[in-house]
């Protein structure tokens, strides 16, 4: 398969979109050098937005966790897949059945008494057959399907863990209904963040550890993508024949150093 042409990085980007888990931190630990690297980006005056498909943790809790690790990040800089899903529900006047992690339930709000849409997040071990079957029956009856994300796996402190993509795909297979993805890799997720800082896709950059949902999605949206060899990065991702990053860096600190060295 021929490689996708990657937008070249020939000058310093005017804005940086940064994935969180696997790029800045793993679990509750900051990746070595990432706190100082973020401070260098801020000192350079570049607008920053932070993107995450994490759907188990409320935004305020996630920001507080990052701040405890030493990262200077504010609520308004963080774009989450749950908030993107909420925006779709609100803009379209939908009546959702929320299948979300208990920690996220208060942030998302209550499900409708008579739902017309299934909104699925990562429930972890709280997801059971009865909930999946309830979602399946709604989809078979004509309800819409919004998935906060469709990632394959993610890195936790004790290793890789199965992500919600397997359950999204299972519901799609059984119901014949294709889910609309609210978070990454949806182009709208990246473009909403860039619209806030008024920077065109070609003038920005995305830094991520996921070849497909970070880098590949960024490239598809016309944004240069930087792949870091941390987090969920697997050996060979940097030589994939179909997705060729604009830049491959050892880690976030290396990526920042090389971006800031551009004219």
Report on the structure:
The protein has 263 residues and is α/β, with parallel strands linked by helices. 35% of the residues lie in helices and 19% in strands. Helix 1 packs parallel to helix 9 and helix 5 (129-140) packs across helix 6.
Strand order of the largest sheet: 5-4-1-12-13-14
Q: Quick check: average pLDDT? A: 94
- The SSE order reads EEEHEHEHEHEHEEEHEHEHEEH
Structural class: alpha/beta
The largest sheet, given as strand count, sense and whether it forms a barrel, is: 6 strands, parallel
What percent strand?
Answer: 15-25%
Q: Unreliable runs, pLDDT <50, ≥5 residues?
A: none
Tell me the distance between the termini: 33 Å
Name its key features.
single chain, 263 residues, alpha/beta, 14 strands
């Amino acid at each position: 398969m021929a490689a996708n042409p990657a937008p070249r990085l020939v000058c310093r980007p005017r804005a940086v979109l940064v994935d969180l888990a696997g790029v800045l931190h793993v679990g509750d630990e900051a990746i070595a050098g990432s706190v100082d690297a973020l401070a260098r980006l801020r000192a350079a005056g570049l607008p920053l937005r932070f993107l995450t498909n994490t759907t188990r943790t409320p935004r305020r809790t996630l920001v507080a966790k990052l701040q405890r690790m030493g990262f200077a990040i504010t609520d308004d800089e963080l774009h989450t897949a749950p908030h993107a899903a909420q925006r779709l529900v609100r803009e379209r006047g939908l009546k959702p059945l929320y299948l979300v992690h208990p920690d996220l339930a208060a942030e998302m709000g209550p499900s409708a008494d008579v739902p017309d849409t299934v909104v699925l997040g990562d429930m972890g071990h709280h997801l059971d057959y009865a909930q999946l079957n309830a979602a399946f029956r709604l989809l078979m009856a004509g309800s819409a399907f919004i998935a906060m994300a469709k990632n394959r796996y993610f890195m936790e402190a004790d290793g890789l863990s199965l992500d919600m993509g397997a359950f999204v795909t299972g519901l799609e297979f059984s119901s014949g209904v294709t889910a609309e993805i609210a978070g990454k890799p949806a182009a709208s997720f990246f473009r909403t963040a860039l619209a806030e800082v008024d920077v065109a896709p070609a003038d920005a950059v995305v830094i991520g550890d996921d070849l497909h949902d970070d880098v590949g999605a960024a490239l598809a949206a016309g944004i240069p993508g930087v792949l870091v060899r941390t987090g969920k990065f697997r050996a060979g991702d940097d030589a994939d024949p179909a997705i060729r990053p604009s830049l491959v860096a050892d880690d976030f600190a290396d990526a920042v150093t090389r971006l800031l060295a551009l004219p």
